[in-house]
Amino acid sequence: MSVAESQNVEWKESWRDEYLKWICGFANAQGGKIYIGTSDDGTVIGVQDSKKLMEDIPNKVRDVLGIIVDANLRTEDGKDYIEICVNPNSYPVNYKGEYHYRSGSTKQQLKGQALD
């Protein structure tokens, strides 16, 4: 893949529930995409349980964050990977009471006055 990791793109080798924080951060900023099954440079390494993840990820995002994301199954060189598309949200999204925000290529947790 030719898209570089940036303010709007994050590469992850496998799914972890903590990535809900990144989805939260994208939703509170300009939106973005997370690719599951890719190395840090965007090389597709594939995921084993893509069909299960295609169900689990959107359900977890909905249940924990209260937003809807698009999860797309992609294939490159016979390897499945998942593209999660997060739209910017019009109201603040929180992850278990924490507010995260995407700034540059980092995820910030907003506290106190930063929440305004």
Furnish the topology, listing elements before pairings.
Layout: E1 9-12, H1 20-27, E2 32-36, H2 50-65, E3 70-76, E4 79-86, E5 94-95, E6 98-103, E7 106-110
Parallel strand pairs: 1-2
Antiparallel strand pairs: 2-4, 3-4, 5-6, 6-7
pLDDT < 50 stretches: none
Approximately how much beta-strand content do the residues carry? 25-35%
Query: What order do the helices and strands follow?
Result: EHEHEEEEE
Measured distance between first and last alpha carbons:
37 Å
Percent helix range: 10-25%
Structural category: alpha+beta
Spatial ordering of strands, largest sheet: 1-2-4-3
The counted number of beta strands is 7
The dominant shape is globular
How many H/I helices? 2
Largest sheet: 4 strands, mixed
Radius of gyration, in Å, reads: 14 Å
Residue-averaged pLDDT: 91
Overview of this structure, please?
This protein has 116 residues and is α+β, with helices and mostly antiparallel strands. The protein has helices at 20-27, 50-65; strands at 9-12, 32-36, 70-76, 79-86, 94-95, 98-103, 106-110. A 4-stranded mixed beta sheet has the order 1-2-4-3. It starts with 8 loop residues before the first strand and ends in a 6-residue tail after the last strand.
Task: Write a concise keyword list for the protein shown above.
alpha+beta; 4-stranded mixed sheet
Short synopsis of the structure:
With 116 residues, the protein is an alpha+beta fold.
